Amino acid sequence: MSNHSDYAALKDMFPGFETRTIQVGSQELFLRVGGSGPVLLLIHGYPQNHVCWHKIAPILAEHFTLILPDLPGYGRSSHPEDDENFLNHSKRAMASSLVQLMEELEHERFLVAGHDRGARVAYRMALDHSDKVEKLVCLDITPTLDMWQGMNAPKAMNAYHWQFLAQPYPLPEKLIMADPAYYLDHTIASWAKSRDLSAFDPKAMDHYRATFATEEQVHGACQDYRAGWAIDQELDARDREEGRKIKAPTLVISGPASKTSDSKAQQRLWEQWCENIDCQTVSAGHFVAEEAPSETLDLLLPFLKS
C-alpha cells in the first residue's frame, strides 16, 4: 500500500470530507466520506484515483452521502495478491470488495457511478449484486466484451493501452517505470478533448504523478488490464450468453472527443446490457468529470435524484 503525505494537502478539494482506511477481507481500502442524503458510491478509473472526483464532489455532497474509495491496487488502497488467472484483479473481485466496504459502512443499498475502470467495476457490481445497486452511472466506457470484440485497426491504434498494459509481466511495467510521470502526462493529455493538460487542476496532476510513479502502482494497473483481457471478458461473455442484464436504471455519459461511440451507437450497444438505459454526451474527452464538470452534474443530478 502506498503512503503519500500529499493526501492531506488535498483536503481543500474535498471540504467537509473525512478520510478513512477500512479493512475488507485481506484488503485495506482508503476512502473519503462526506455529504448527507442518499448514499452515492463514486469509483475512479485509470490512471487516477478518487481525486478525479474533486470538481463535482462538493456539489454532489450537497445532495448525497458520498463514498469515494481508491480501488484495490490504486492510490492508498492495498494491492490484491497476484494469481495466475488474475481473479483477484477482476472487476468481480473489486466489485465484491466495494460491496463489503459499503456493508462495513452499513449501507445496504446505494447509487453507484464509475469512470473508466471504475465504471467497469460499477456495471459488474450491478450485474453481480443487483440487490445492492439502486441506480448506475457509467462515465465514458464501452463494455469490456464489446471493446475487445470491436477492436479493429483504428480502435487498436486509439486504445493501444488495452493491448500494451495486458502484456505479460514485466514488459509494460519496465517500460512505464522508465519515465512514469511522462507516461501518465501523455496518457491523460492524449485522452482529453484539448489533447493537453489545461483542463486539469495542477495540484491534482501533481498528486496523480506522485501516486502513479511506484512499481506497485504500475503493476497493479497492469494486472487490472490483464484481468480485462482474461477473466473480465469471460464473465461478460457468459452474461451475454445467459441473457443477464443490468436491472438498475442506467445512465451512460460519454465525451465525443474521447473516441467512444456517439450517443445513438452507445444507446444501441448498452441496450444489450441494460433493461433501462439512457446514453448522453458532454463536451469533453475521456475525463468528463474534470473536463466538463458542470455539464456532467447537469446530467447526474436529475438522474440520481429522480
From TrEMBL:
Domain AB hydrolase-1 positions: 38-293
GO molecular function per UniProt: hydrolase activity
Pfam families xref list: Abhydrolase_1
Record keywords: Hydrolase
Keyword Hydrolase: yes
Matching Gene3D superfamilies: alpha/beta hydrolase (3.40.50.1820)
Record protein name field: Haloacetate dehalogenase
Organism for this UniProt entry: Cohaesibacter gelatinilyticus
